[in-house]
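Data availability excerpt. The first of two example chains:
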Amino acid sequence: MADPPHVAAVVGSLRERSHTRMALNEALRGVEEAGGTGELLDLREYDLPVLNVDDEETEDVEAFTEAVREADAVILGTPMYHGSYSGVLKNALDHCGFDEFEDKTVGLLAVAAGSFPITALEHLRSVCRALDAWVLPHQAAVPRASSAFEDGEFVEEKSAERVRVLGERAVEYANIEPDPNCLESEQNVGARTTD
């Protein structure tokens, strides 16, 4: 555990003017306000091929998974696509496993063009639980994202505050102790197997 805790924020969008990226930058402000250090892991900067377990890892895959593994906490950010999280984030998570997420604190953030992106957050929460991560109860959503930002900054303060608090909680709970194993966690071998 680093002192101060280090938080990696994964941008699950490839758009140049991504609202997800803008929101994660706000979350990283919360990280810094809470005394942590933060790093934006922008998936535009990594060449992550569609996962094929028969292929060897590339340098970019190794760099990305190492950055996630070395972080004390992770914030996953995504736009909502068809009621779920983005394919680019799914592929990035597919390259990860228990080594990157087991017992790690994870915060969730989703943005949507329309109303509250609850299903995207629920789906991400399920994936993180399957990886034995500790997902923060506090999550952040930015509905109607096109009107929440102007010139790359939040103009909707209520959403901005909730996003900053997500960053603060990631620092506050970065060193939470894992629960003792239970029957369910001992049976969770899905990410350890390949087809």
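And the second chain:
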Amino acid sequence: MIGKITGRIEYRALDHLLIDVRGVGYLVYCSERTLAALPAVGEVTALYTDLVVREDLMQLFGFQTLVEKEWHRLLTSVQGIGTKASLAILGALGPDGVSRAIALGDWNAVKVAKGVGPKIAQRVVLDLKDKAPSVMAMSGTLVEAQGEVEAEVLEPITPVKRAAPAPNASAQAEAMSALGNLGYSPGDAAAAVAQAAGDAPDAETPALIRGALKLLAPKG
């Protein structure tokens, strides 16, 4: 299993690129958002990867963060969502947007992805809502990742461009944990924290907890 590759970009197309790793070229399929964030042809990049093996096909899919990779794995577990639809959703929303949409039950946000209709979007939200908290709590930079299976890579190279985690990702995780300790379900906690974080993107843990508790308080 190839869990990550590092190499020079030889060429890029609309939905994939070729990465040269010590003379071996890997075709890697990515979302539009990920492709747009990668460096130019001839420069070095690194991607987490997921290898899909079928009877008549082997495809490698690339992701800038572990969060993006995990959402791809979960999205493709939903009936009716293949790799193409998953990349379309991630390309339209980004991993943080997917986390927020699913935590809030916002299937309208999911259906903006090309090729994803209302019924499939609703199924994605229903099937994955309880799994959103654990993904939202993940930290997704290449530096923080541990235990990944790596392909053999180049000699020492220049720093790799990578996506930064959400500014208050750790605060959101701590807030969800606190709400869980108070007895709230993972789905309710994730939805409330996601909404509170949307209202105050730079809020720290105490402020997120207060905001989430206000949203969870009985109305009337």
